[in-house]
């Protein structure tokens, strides 16, 4: 019997994402969608130190239009946000399909593929 998916992130008494939250991000199945994964991770992010949000595309102008949904994460150096990025990286399918770039200082971009690509890969 499969486990019930978590709907909201959980935090410890200091505001850090709990292990269960990080495991949910790491184990998020492709069938639940990359955008929904990033929305869940966004709710777990500490926005006093960093941000995770849909943003402007840094993709080249000749990149296919349907690949231009970009999410930007800035960890602000906060270890809880860094843990969330590490959990996203351990979600191998997500990282292979969506990681766009990382820069020194905790800056990361994720470039979402078109929905059809995600569905086909998960079939």
What are the salient characteristics of this protein?
single chain; 123 residues; alpha+beta; 18% strand
What does this structure look like?
With 123 residues, this protein is α+β, with helices and mostly antiparallel strands. The protein has one domain (19-122). Helices cover 38% and strands 18% of the residues. It contains 5 helices and 4 strands; from the N terminus they run H-H-E-E-H-H-E-E-H. The protein has helices spanning 19-27, 34-44, 79-90, 92-98, 115-122; strands spanning 51-55, 69-74, 99-103, 107-112. Strand 3 and strand 4 form a beta hairpin. Helix 1 (19-27) runs parallel beside helix 3 (79-90).
Topology:
Blueprint (H helix, E strand, L loop, with lengths): L18 H9 L6 H11 L6 E5 L13 E6 L4 H12 L1 H7 E5 L3 E6 L2 H8 L1
Antiparallel strand pairs: 1-2, 2-4, 3-4
